């Protein structure tokens, strides 16, 4: 079976290579671009090396390495929240593995990160009947008094409804039963529920988890206290319980809940961004970044968020090194720390490397799933999109040729993108991403060896070609240096 | 919106009624049947009353009553395991509601049921790293000693693999990491894991939950100890953890788990089947049964298993009574008790009503979800299928005309089916049924008001027509009395 597969993929790639010689790789869309013909030809000449990368990952001796290395890591450490010793051990592991597998300039860069600890917690419905509510405190929440908070609860479906009943909120627990529209639109309820409710005198908030699908699954995440309002405890509950509490209220039933949370914020702790490179052969000062974050939430295992993204980036360098592919520019893998607490590692890194900004040629991050890949999401000028499309056309055998905009699945690279540095995130079939996100369901079962083979082939190929072609990724129109 | 909907459904039903006068309701398939023309005509004459049922449930004053009544019940009681006071309170509530809503001969019939109590429980991975394993003890399992059982674990994917490593099982916890094929095929691992492992000297078993999809969700259920083997504690773990433990073992890592279960079996307790009727106007001794079970597992809320099925049956009688539809035969709703412990309520009822067997004209049960309905699943002779198809053709406006065989979504009626009494279960879009089954995710969120409107229209119409037509449901070929 494996041998047959091997032969068939080899034939497919050979056929595809012959086709590419026939110049069919530039489709009409790409031809609308203004890439100079020499650059087009130069990109086309990478077909052989891209095929080699694909082959080695799909059927060769690098097959399943991203999945296997990720699984070893995840099974060893489980989840890795900022401030935890476990995260620091995981960082040490990655530094050692990077050296062991031949990566270069392996080092870490220190940064102080928030240190929030959940502790024991519970929410119990006392009236109209006793029921344990499945919950998770939200990151940065204060705890309750030791005996908990027992209070009448009031359910609202929106901030507007909260305003409308503001006079009845004092001393109560406010339950936000907001409708899930999209993560981007709905996450404000997780972020600001506590502050909005505290303004009206609420004593705590419980927020319907930000997810489109639930098996009675609570989803945690960071929340932000506004200045000048009382910090009240805040947690998420499941969509199911949130809906039930709304029905109870609509029937005129009095709802009483007891909330207990030991959550505490300690002094910031020293953590580290983890860096490993393949030094550029001709222009080592110029850098192409691939990245993902190594920290996770303190539930589940952070296999998807962002183990998959971090290992996609890191293993791309490992496999390029293994294949003996050293590009002209430096390839740098950065495994960010404390992304979940507000891109803390990335902010510190960008600040510390301010002087290098001109040398960051292209920055990549995968942090929105590593399901079956479809291509890239890009932020930059249109010329750069044309270059990317030309490069991705080398990957049409694995159906990863789409370029969408903007690069919104790469939170840590946004500081650079907003400064005009072109960058990309992974475009993948992430429809179910928020089913697992920040929950106990974020485990290795979300990750698929074959999807990771394909994503690594895409990711490593793009990083290598961008780092090796003559032209820098353009930042100004027509600038194909 | 509601008014427009109302008008459009009215027009649709009127148009459909006019068509039915034109005899189009008997399609070719039905015409292959040997139903006498008079019976065909008689069934066709029910189009008006069926349309009235549909109309009242889809847009009329009975709209959403099944969902609403179910939600009131579920929100009030939560889950209802056999042996619990909560189940008995829920039974009292149904008896009172039945009287209040005008049902007849409302009563309960006593039966002793198993009384198993879960208590506190936990499974913790101690080596190769510390992790809490999300678990649920299996019904009828014994508990562990107070301090728990701490033992090395061995993972097998099948009973065959267990046989192969039998020599290495003594004193260990056996983890069953079986692949999910279908519930029917795979549930044997939940049922017999403990006995099979105990035969080889294991001290406990943990079984991968019987489900095709998981958000780190454990699924409980009944298990059976064989005679003459030591009763060892047994619980389910999540698919995710089961896979992780397998990977750890495959890497040669030593796995140590600490299992604590307070589970206890007490003396059988008195419970009750709940019965309510619409007495037959002409042949009251003849009975059409609609049913579902009122008990549930002790996790989640038993809204799907089998709140939806029980209320579909019970509310069918309530709405027929409200519509003033009294059939010739008696319609009897039976809400079984202790289905989850082995059809205990149904067995007792069948035994107690042995003398009536000839009078059970048709028996229906819904216990495999109340998602969007498609028709019925039937067990009986082909002639009966023809009658059902003729009746279901009256429901083509709501696309519930399919008859499949056998009636496998009705466990409690199997005793009657095996005696040759014809019966049916609900055919519905239950593809995701086992995502929720026996888990904390079995809540009102699984139930959909519109699907329940449609299912009630189907269920009530079939029950009414079968109970009212001249002919009994045939038990022998050509027997259209």
Which spans of chain A have pLDDT < 50 for at least 5 consecutive residues?
1-11, 13-31
> Which second-level CATH architecture of the largest domain in chain A applies?
3-Layer(aba) Sandwich
Tally of structural domains of chain A: 2
Helix content of chain A: 25-40%
Strand content of chain A: 15-25%
CATH fourth-tier homologous superfamily of the largest domain in chain A = Zn peptidases
CATH domain fold name of the largest domain in chain A: Aminopeptidase
Name the biggest interface: A-B, 30 and 30 residues
Number of helices of chain A: 16
DSSP strand tally of chain A? 16
CATH class of the largest domain in chain A: Alpha Beta
Mean pLDDT of chain A: 93
Spatial separation of the terminal alpha carbons of chain A: 47 Å
Oligomeric form of this entry? homodimer
Largest sheet: spatial strand order of chain A: 1-10-12-11-13-16-14-15
Shape of chain A: elongated
Largest sheet of chain A: 8 strands, mixed
Subunit structure (chains A, B): Homodimer. The monomeric form is inactive while the homodimer is active.
Subcellular location (chains A, B): Endoplasmic reticulum; Golgi apparatus; Lysosome; Secreted
GO molecular function (chains A, B): carboxypeptidase activity; metal ion binding; metallodipeptidase activity
Signal peptide (chains A, B): 1-23
């Amino acid at each position: 079976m494996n041998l047959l597969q091997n032969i068939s993929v080899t034939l497919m790639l050979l056929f595809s290579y012959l086709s590419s010689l026939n110049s069919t790789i530039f489709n009409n869309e790409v031809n609308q671009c203004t890439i100079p013909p020499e650059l087009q030809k130069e990109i086309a000449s990478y077909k052989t090396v891209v095929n080699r990368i694909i082959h080695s990952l799909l059927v060769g001796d690098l097959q399943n390495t991203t999945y296997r290395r990720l699984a070893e890591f995840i099974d060893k450490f489980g989840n890795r929240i900022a401030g935890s010793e476990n995260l620091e051990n995981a960082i040490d592991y990655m530094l050692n593995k990077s050296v062991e597998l031949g990566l270069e300039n392996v080092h870490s860069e220190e940064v102080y990160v928030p240190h929030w600890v959940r502790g024991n917690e519970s929410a119990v419905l006392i009236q109209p009947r006793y029921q344990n509510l499945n919950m998770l405190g939200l990151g940065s929440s204060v705890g309750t008094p030791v005996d908990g908070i027992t209070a009448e609860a009031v359910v609202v479906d929106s901030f507007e409804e909260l305003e409308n009943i503001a006079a009845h909120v004092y001393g109560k627990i406010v339950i936000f039963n907001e409708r899930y529209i999209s993560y981007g639109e709905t996450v404000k309820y997780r972020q600001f529920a506590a502050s909005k409710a505290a303004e009206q005198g609420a004593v705590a908030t419980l927020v319907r988890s930000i997810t489109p699908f639930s098996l009675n699954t609570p989803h945690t995440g960071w929340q932000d206290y506004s200045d000048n309002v009382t910090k009240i405890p805040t947690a998420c509950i499941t969509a199911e319980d949130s809906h039930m509490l709304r029905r109870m209220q609509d029937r005129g039933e009095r709802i009483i809940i007891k909330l207990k949370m030991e959550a505490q914020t300690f002094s910031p702790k020293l953590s580290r961004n983890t860096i490993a490179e393949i030094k550029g052969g001709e222009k080592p000062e110029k850098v192409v970044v691939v990245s993902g974050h190594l920290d996770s939430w303190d539930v589940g295992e952070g296999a998807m968020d962002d183990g998959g993204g971090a290992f996609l980036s890191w293993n791309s360098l490992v496999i390029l090194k293994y294949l003996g592919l050293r590009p002209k520019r430096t390839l740098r893998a950065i495994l960010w720390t404390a992304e979940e607490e507000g891109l803390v590692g990335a902010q510190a890194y960008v600040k510390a490397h301010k002087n290098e900004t001109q040398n960051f040629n292209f920055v990549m991050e995968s942090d929105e799933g590593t399901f079956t890949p479809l291509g890239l999401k890009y932020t930059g000028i249109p010329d750069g999109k044309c270059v990317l499309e030309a490069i991705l056309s080398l990957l049409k055998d694995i159906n990863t040729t789409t370029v969408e905009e903007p690069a919104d699945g790469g939170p840590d690279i946004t500081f650079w993108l907003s400064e005009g540095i072109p960058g990309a995130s992974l475009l993948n079939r992430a429809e179910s991403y928020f089913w697992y996100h920040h929950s106990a369901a974020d485990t290795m079962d979300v990750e698929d060896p074959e999807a990771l083979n394909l994503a690594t082939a895409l990711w490593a190929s793009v990083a290598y070609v961008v780092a090796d072609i003559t032209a820098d990724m353009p930042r100004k129109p027509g600038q194909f240096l």
